[in-house]
């Protein structure tokens, strides 16, 4: 793993990994593209940048797939472009609905305009709901992840859930 600023590593584990690679006759495949593939954006003195995507292969594999890196780089480039376009479209979608709402709000109120207004509001609400769901899922994933790292946080969260789910008693039905 390439890093701009190395963190302490367990040298014994790293040596065992190197031995396993040598015994398996595996070599680093190298890389194309940016040196670092992940970055935790923070203040410059604390910023961490790493290359996470590594591949290893042996000579037989290279002989069988000689153009692997070229094909992989082309695919990676097209996926990266696609993700950027998707982000722009997503941001533009909400803006377009808001502009259309504003425009329709300034028109005379007849059946056709009101129908279009309702339709645009419906679609905007769907986009907002999807965005809300995304952030809720992301918050839940972060909460579960933080629970592994922060036992006090996790304990408080679990205790609150326990109190929420607690059944105080049962009533006879009928």
Automatic annotation (TrEMBL):
The chain crosses the membrane at residues 59-76. One of its GO terms (molecular function) is RNA-directed DNA polymerase activity. Keywords: Membrane, Nucleotidyltransferase, RNA-directed DNA polymerase, Transferase, Transmembrane, Transmembrane helix. This is Reverse transcriptase. It comes from Gossypium australe. The lineage of its organism: Eukaryota, Viridiplantae, Streptophyta, Embryophyta, Tracheophyta.
